[in-house]
Each structure stands twice: as C-alpha cells, then as structure tokens.
Amino acid sequence: MTTVKREKPGPGQESVWDYPRPPRVEPVSDRIVIRLGGEVVADTTDAVRVLETSHPPVYYLPRSAFTGGSLEPAAGSSFCEFKGAARYLSVRSGDTGAERSAWFDPTPSAGYELLVDRVAVYPSAMDDCTVAGESVTPQAGDFYGGWITSRVVGPFKGEPGTLGW
Length: 165
Hints:
With 165 residues, the protein is mostly beta strands. It has no helices and 15 strands. The strands form four sheets. It has a seven-stranded antiparallel β-sheet, with no helix packed on it. A four-stranded antiparallel β-sheet has the order 4-3-11-12, with no helix packed on it. A two-stranded parallel ribbon has the order 1-15.
C-alpha cells in the first residue's frame, strides 16, 4: 500500500483527506458557472457538492441551471457503490459538443436524495468551470470529475499511481 503524504491545509482550506467515506453531500451557495463553446451553459447558486476521501469536490447543479438544449442523453451508464446508477449526458453549446461529459443519478441511493434532478460535469471537457469566480483545475484521470480550487488541498486521487488509494 502506498503511503500518502497529506498536504496541510492553510487558513480557509480543506483537506480532501478529511472528507468522509462513504461520501457526504452538502448544499453550497457559491456561484457556479460552466462555459462551453465560448458561452455560459450553466449558472447557479443552488448547487450541492459530493465530498469523498481523497477526491476534490464534485459539484452537481440543478438541471434548470443549464441553458435549454445544452444537455442531451448519451450512451452508457456506470455504478457507484454509494450513490447508485448514473447515466451520461453530452453538453452542447452552439457548434461545440462535449460527448459524455456530464452525468446524473436518476434514482440515487438512500442518503443521496439531494442529487435528484441535478447534473455533474467533467470540468476537463468544458472551456471553464468556476466556483465563486475562481476557475477550477480538473481532477486528473478520465474517471473522476472533481473540481480543484484553492480551497482544497490533496494529494488528489486520479494521478498515475493513485488507483490503490
């Protein structure tokens, strides 16, 4: 097993190593803005974030925060041992499309009801995602959808060699 050297959080920061497992869902009132194709495709102050040990937060926005026609069903599904089954969406803005770049949990497991009618996106597939005006850095790896801001410290799962964390 790999030994993880935790970063020490500074004032106003959180360590992802203090996040729980199973994950916790909590409402946030920060303004979340997602841009694709040079346009805003989502904008809200009614998001929730999922916090799980070793992962930066994943933000879920209400479907109503997305512009009309920006979300389209996409092939595939996945299963989370905690949240349950997820389905994928593509995000579109004008001539720009990001295939399978978002997901939602149509009937989340008990304890995750706050995710109903909400959508998460992979920030790496978007032009820009911001939390309270700060552009996020996407979590490494093709599987995870975490949003890294200056408020969270790691190290973060997703980099090469972190699969066993």
